[in-house]
């Protein structure tokens, strides 16, 4: 009998394998939804047949119940098989025999099995004591055997869930938030957990559980016409991605790995990994919004007992025209007429942002159905409410997200569709483009008192990347869009031009400050000319640059970047006001004396920031000095945030702004001693750093980058050429680059070294002498790229796929 059992389960495995393989005329490849349905039918057929073989019939006192994926009819290729064998007044020996003959074939066939054998009262007690077990049994479904026994369990679990939800609700929410904290948000994770992450499949099951408790609709707050197709579509998309993840991985897996994303996107006909990321972001944010609404609705709908039943119902407190607070939410007043009040959407949104209270899902749905379009140009009150919303700091983020998920934000700002859920192409960015714009608005609000026109600052923050997701330079495209939007909002023509200029030039200050020599009058003149001498625009761009950097991700903004941009702005403001541009900052007299005296001097002083220091190196100017100096700093774990090079007579005066990777800085005397050793050839900083890197990373080619490094060339206004490197950082990168330049006999006139998180944008003004040529630049570029981290080499099969594509 054992052989028959094993063969039966083996047939099940073979049939599953055939379903997964597909791709042949006689066995076509099933799409994800059809595959799940086929797997449900396959497992049900096997279990039904096996149950009949073992005598699990209508009057047997035995019943087989499915929970988990099979219970939900969402069977994934390698999901666990979750089964409960129920029994009632059956000889224990008989129950044990049936269980063994049911479970062992599945185990022997290596099918993952989560099983239990219980009476109905035992199962009910488990559900009463364990919330995860209760959530699983809420999805129970009869498979074979005594249907009345299964119905006793299913009905009993649901009844006790409804009656006991008041005492279990807080624990349910606590467990949910713990899961979110552990697994993160799917919408903003590079490798999201599709099952447990915030906005994932567990959250949809949570909504179903709240609906069974009769506390909320299973699909709250969203209809089929919202962006992305609503919750039902988001659920199916999430299931489809997880189904293909199983198929690609060849085993059960919940976390979407970056290396599988392109294949999964192609299988689902979504596109590449970026298109897949955008789809997942849309689906996860739709689910997250629905869960937020569902939890609020459920909390307000919890049955009240004891003295709580005697309390008065919540009163309606007026907030604005047609807007009131009720039961902790912003809702419409009873006399509100959305059909005749196009500005009501923005008043509701502004009220929510100012009070910090969420907008009722019912209110948003009513506005979506009844509120007319705003006429163009917008009335002043509507524009004012928009500015109130944008000026509410971080409260604005949740409000805009809710408006967007219900289709109202796209009605107000149709251009938003191109950036909605658009994933960043640069790893330094934390958020999707639309969320980045919201974050920038929030950060800009903190700097609104630093500008004369906080309204234009808020609008500029909202629109500065609106041109992304379209063909062409996003700053140029965005400026054109900003012009159209500004006119629609009813701005004055002069303000429309300023708003367009903000979007057009929002990268001007950070790019110039971190890549050009600020002491060069041509650099300042370039900025002044681009801004047409507009001091107000300069101030707006200065504040926006900080907000944009803070909203990008950790490490993008810091004291070093603030100092560089601040210096540039001060110089530009001086020229704009008609004052004579000051000469470059003179070297301090004591440093001049040391440079004239010769020798090697190293000074270390506290910097402008709490954890930054300025290291000044004075030494005889010679090839390799920059490499030696930067190498000594790296040996002492001093991360170079920026560097400026100068020459006085025969001595080089190099200034580095550094921050220790940990602890405090070393003594300046120690740095001097090791620099002298390096200059004398007794210490090779590059070799020591390379050994440290090998020890840290183990054998192999060294650190890999996520992105392909790039070298950009341009001509310097003062002569020479500018080499700009965009790459990922590594230990001692600056000393390696300086060594490359020394070996190539390329003299470094000045440099701007900037580190942003794990990425660097390093700009060097080089003097290649009379031998400057395209061939020499190409050779130098190859040498530079050899010392920066490169992307991991593709696997042979990946390389083959790329060639075919």
From TrEMBL:
Keywords from the named record: Hydrolase, Magnesium, Multifunctional enzyme, Nucleotidyltransferase, Repeat, Transferase
Q: How is its activity regulated?
A: Uridylyltransferase (UTase) activity is inhibited by glutamine, while glutamine activates uridylyl-removing (UR) activity.
Write out the ranges of the annotated region (Uridylyltransferase).
1-318
Domain named ACT: which ranges?
614-690, 722-801
Note the CDD domains from the entry.
ACT_UUR-ACR-like
Q: Which residues form the HD domain?
A: 433-534
Q: Name one Pfam family in it.
A: GlnD_UR_UTase
- One Gene Ontology molecular-function label: [protein-PII] uridylyltransferase activity
Q: What are its E.C. numbers?
A: 2.7.7.59, 3.1.4.-
Instruction: Give the matching InterPro entries.
Output: ACT-like_dom_sf, ACT_dom, HD/PDEase_dom, HD_domain, NT_sf, PII_UdlTrfase/GS_AdlTrfase, UTase/UR
Q: Name the catalysed reactions.
A: [protein-PII]-uridylyl-L-tyrosine + H2O = [protein-PII]-L-tyrosine + UMP + H(+); [protein-PII]-L-tyrosine + UTP = [protein-PII]-uridylyl-L-tyrosine + diphosphate
Q: Which cofactor does it need?
A: Mg(2+)
Family to which this protein belongs: Belongs to the GlnD family.
NCBIfam families (UniProt xref): PRK03381.1 (NF002895), UTase_glnD (TIGR01693)
The Swiss-Prot or TrEMBL note on domains reads:
Has four distinct domains: an N-terminal nucleotidyltransferase (NT) domain responsible for UTase activity, a central HD domain that encodes UR activity, and two C-terminal ACT domains that seem to have a role in glutamine sensing.
Q: What does this protein do?
A: Modifies, by uridylylation and deuridylylation, the PII regulatory proteins (GlnB and homologs), in response to the nitrogen status of the cell that GlnD senses through the glutamine level. Under low glutamine levels, catalyzes the conversion of the PII proteins and UTP to PII-UMP and PPi, while under higher glutamine levels, GlnD hydrolyzes PII-UMP to PII and UMP (deuridylylation). Thus, controls uridylylation state and activity of the PII proteins, and plays an important role in the regulation of nitrogen metabolism.
User: What protein am I looking at?
Assistant: Bifunctional uridylyltransferase/uridylyl-removing enzyme
The protein's organism comes out as Nocardia jiangsuensis
């Amino acid at each position: 009998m054992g052989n028959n059992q094993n063969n039966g389960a083996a047939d099940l495995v073979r049939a599953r394998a055939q379903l997964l393989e597909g791709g042949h005329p006689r066995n076509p490849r099933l799409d994800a939804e059809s595959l799940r349905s086929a797997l449900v039918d396959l497992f049900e057929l096997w279990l039904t047949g096996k149950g009949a073989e073992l005598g699990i019939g209508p009057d047997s006192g035995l019943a087989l119940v499915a929970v988990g994926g099979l219970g939900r009819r969402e069977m994934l290729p390698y999901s666990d098989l979750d089964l409960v064998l129920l029994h009632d007044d059956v000889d224990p020996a008989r129950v044990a025999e049936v269980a063994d003959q049911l479970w062992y074939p599945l185990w022997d066939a290596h099918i993952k099995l989560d099983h239990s054998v219980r009476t109905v009262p035992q199962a009910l007690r488990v559900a009463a004591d364990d919330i995860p077990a209760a959530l699983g049994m809420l999805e129970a479904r009869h498979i074979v055997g005594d249907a009345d026994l299964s119905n006793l369990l299913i009905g009993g679990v649901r009844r006790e869930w409804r009656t006991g939800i008041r005492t279990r609700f807080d624990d349910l929410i606590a467990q949910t938030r713990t899961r979110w904290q552990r697994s993160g948000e799917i919408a903003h994770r590079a490798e999201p957990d599709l099952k447990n992450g915030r906005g994932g499949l567990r959250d949809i099951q949570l909504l179903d559980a709240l609906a069974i408790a009769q506390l909320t609709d299973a699909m709250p707050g969203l209809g089929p016409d919202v962006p992305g197709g609503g919750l039902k579509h988001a659920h199916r998309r999430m299931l489809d991605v997880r189904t293909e993840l199983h198929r690609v991985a060849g085993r059960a897996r919940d976390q979407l790995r970056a290396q599988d994303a392109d294949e999964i996107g192609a299988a689902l006909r979504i596109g590449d990994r970026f298109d897949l990321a955008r789809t997942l972001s849309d689906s996860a944010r739709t689910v997250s919004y629905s869960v937020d609404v569902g939890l609020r609705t459920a909390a307000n709908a919890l049955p009240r007992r004891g003295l709580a039943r005697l309390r008065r119902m919540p009163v309606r407190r007026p907030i604005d025209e047609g807007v009131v607070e009720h039961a902790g939410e912003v809702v419409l007043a009873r006399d509100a007429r959305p059909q005749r009040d196009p500005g009501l959407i923005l008043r509701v949104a502004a009220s929510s942002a100012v009070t910090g209270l969420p907008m009722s899902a019912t209110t948003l749905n009513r506005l979506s159905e009844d509120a007319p379009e705003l006429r163009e140009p917008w009335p002043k009150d509507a524009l004012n409410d928009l500015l109130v919303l944008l000026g509410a700091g971080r409260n604005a983020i949740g409000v805009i997200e809710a408006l967007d998920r219900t289709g109202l934000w796209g009605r107000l700002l149709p251009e938003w569709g191109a950036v909605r859920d658009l994933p960043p192409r640069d790893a330094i960015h934390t958020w999707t483009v639309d969320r980045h714009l919201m974050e920038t608005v929030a950060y800009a609000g903190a700097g609104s008192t630093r500008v004369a026109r906080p309204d234009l600052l808020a609008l500029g923050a909202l629109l500065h990347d609106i041109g992304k997701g379209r063909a062409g330079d996003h700053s140029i495209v965005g400026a054109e869009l900003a012009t159209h939007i500004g006119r629609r909002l009813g701005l004055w023509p002069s303000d429309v031009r300023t708003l367009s200029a903000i979007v057009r030039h929002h990268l001007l200050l950070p790019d110039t400050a971190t890549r050009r020599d600020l002491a060069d009058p041509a650099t300042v003149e370039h900025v002044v000319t681009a801004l047409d001498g507009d001091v107000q625009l300069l101030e707006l761009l200065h504040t926006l640059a900080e907000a944009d950097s803070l909203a990008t991700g950790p490490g993008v903004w810091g004291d070093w970047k603030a100092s560089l941009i601040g210096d540039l702005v001060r110089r530009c403001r001086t020229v704009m006001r008609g004052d004579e541009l000051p000469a470059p900052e003179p070297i301090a007299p004591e440093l001049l004396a040391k440079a004239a005296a010769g020798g090697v001097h190293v000074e270390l002083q506290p910097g402008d920031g709490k954890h930054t220091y300025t290291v000044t190196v004075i030494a005889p100017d010679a090839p390799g000095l920059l490499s030696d100096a930067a190498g000594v700093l790296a040996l002492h774990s001093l991360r170079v945030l920026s560097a400026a090079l100068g020459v006085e007579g025969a001595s080089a005066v190099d200034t580095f702004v550094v921050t220790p990777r940990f602890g405090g800085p070393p003594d300046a005397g120690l740095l001097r001693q090791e620099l002298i050793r390096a200059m004398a050839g007794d210490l090779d900083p590059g070799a020591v750093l390379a050994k440290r890197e090998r020890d840290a990373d183990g054998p192999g080619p060294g650190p890999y980058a996520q992105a392909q490094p790039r070298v950009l060339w341009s001509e310097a206004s003062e002569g020479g050429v500018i080499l700009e490197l965009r790459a990922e950082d590594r230990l001692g990168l600056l000393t390696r680059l300086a060594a490359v330049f020394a070996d190539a006999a390329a003299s470094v006139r000045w440099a701007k070294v900037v580190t942003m998180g794990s990425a660097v944008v390093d700009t060097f003004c080089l003097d290649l002498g009379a031998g400057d040529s395209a061939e020499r630049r190409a050779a130098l570029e190859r040498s530079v790229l050899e010392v920066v981290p490169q992307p991991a080499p593709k696997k042979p099969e990946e390389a083959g796929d790329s060639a075919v594509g």
